[in-house]
Amino acid sequence: MMTEVYPNIFKNEIPLPKNPLRAINSYIILSESRNLIIDTGFNTPECQAELMSGLEKLNVDLNKTDLFITHMHADHSGLAPVLKKFGVPTIYFSQVDGELLNQTSQRDTFYISLNRILGFEDDNSASFGKEFGTRQTKPLEFTPLSEGNQLVLGDYCLEVVDIPGHTPGHIGLYERNHKLFFCGDHILDEITPNITFWGFEQDILATYFTSLKKVYEYEIDYLFTAHRKILKDHQKRIIEIQNHHDIRLKEILNILQDGRKTPGKIAASMHWDLSHKSWDDFPHPQKWFASGEALSHLEHLVYIGLVDRIEEGRTFTYGLK
Q1: Residue 269 lies in a domain
Q2: Is the per-residue pLDDT at 128 higher than 50?
Q3: How many domains, in total, are found in the chain?
Q4: Which of 11, 101, 106, 230 is exposed most, by the fewest CB atoms within 10 A?
Q5: How many CA atoms lie within 13 A of 320 on its CB side?
Q6: Where are the alpha helices (DSSP H) in 134-279?
């Protein structure tokens, strides 16, 4: 469904069939000289049909339309190769997430290792990791952007903002004069962005908190999110998200009072706002997301000195210090 959400800025709500996210908001900014698409949807026939239908309704000339990808997850980047094939000249990405998207073999190795860290028995189920990025027959050619770069489209001057956390290289676009922010999955209404584990060498949850504080200081009238509703009070929502993570951290500390556990076992004991009656009923992708989020919180607790991590053979367990 196509809606004009601000002068010459349109939201194309693309359904994501059989996905709890339901839909992705792909944005199109029009100007006389150039246009910009922000995020795409999965590389599926259903998403492609909806994306292209919206562009056709606006009579968008893809040869003078660039693509901006907020981060590497497949619901945002999946149709980038298709748009490139149809004439989009430039695909903008952060250097970090663009490289993550293209490192298919390294990604697979990471997912297999993560499956073991989470405490899942079947390493082959790491194939679910494909959901984090689109399988490429060849690397996606992209133009890297970073903090402070600008994209000018008509009356809009869009500044690139680094907002890592949801992914290591997540970026957004801020229009200072109109007080607009295209934030991808950095901040969402109704649901909280998944903050998962990205390696022992970083406290990704602390990184996310820093990015939230950064955006909190911005003057924003319209926060154009990638899922659910457009937000008009970003500071209120940021406080809600921070409180959510504080509750998560306390919940994990309470669970660990019963003794050491794997991240998967800890996730199974946590509360999740899903319709399934028990952990055993969760589809594997949802178990994977939940356990990855539990692990990012566990690692934050390790970094701040409240929890320790022990590797015993192929198993990682966490316990109170």
Answers
A1: no
A2: no
A3: 1
A4: 106
A5: 11
A6: 204-216, 234-255, 263-269
